Task: structure prediction
Amino acid sequence: KNQVEQSPQSLIILEGKNCTLQCNYTVSPFSNLRWYKQDTGRGPVSLTIMTFSENTKSNGRYTATLDADTKQSSLHITASQLSDSASYICVVRSYAGNNRKLIWGLGTSLGVNP
Amino acid sequence: DTEVTQTPKHLVMGMTNKKSLKCEQHMGHRAMYWYKQKAKKPPELMFVYSYEKLSINESVPSRFSPECPNSSLLNLHLHALQPEDSALYLCASSQGQGQSNQPQHFGDGTRLSIL
Result:
């Protein structure tokens, strides 16, 4: 069964600290893996998209890694800011013929406190 | 501000009402999507339009009726909704449904409450 699991479910850190969010997936066949940030009451915003051959990709203070062999990804946030408080959702795209699906994780809720 | 604009931001309607949600993008994207999102859950895909034609309907009840008048606009017509339909309705667009490495751009959604 195609699944995307994220950990931790929630996390609270102090402003300025770093953190790492985890994503494990069992999706096959694999096309790409995406990380989205969703602020409360807003739509998701794309942070990174990684294909099978990409091990790491950065977007400002956000760095995503992908290990396609172990089917694991992480999102590292450096020098956190109050505005980083949001839900971070890992999404894996599967592609089999004409059937293209996005399989969404449940997200990690991140709170950054001053 | 997002590049995908949704109106209205909030909507309260009775179960017998008819209303429409609207979505607009001017990025030249040819794929547009409707999602439903319940609290603390990920978005669930409802419909996909590709080049103004409906390409995916994820077995959505007929009380939800999508329409794509042109490549920039996407509507969702609502009729005889149930209380469990209360949710955040998100519109998204991407360059093309088949372009797998392009992100979907989301609007900020319409918060729908059914009385």
In short: DSSP finds no helices and eleven strands in chain B. The first strand of chain B starts at residue 4 and ends at 7.
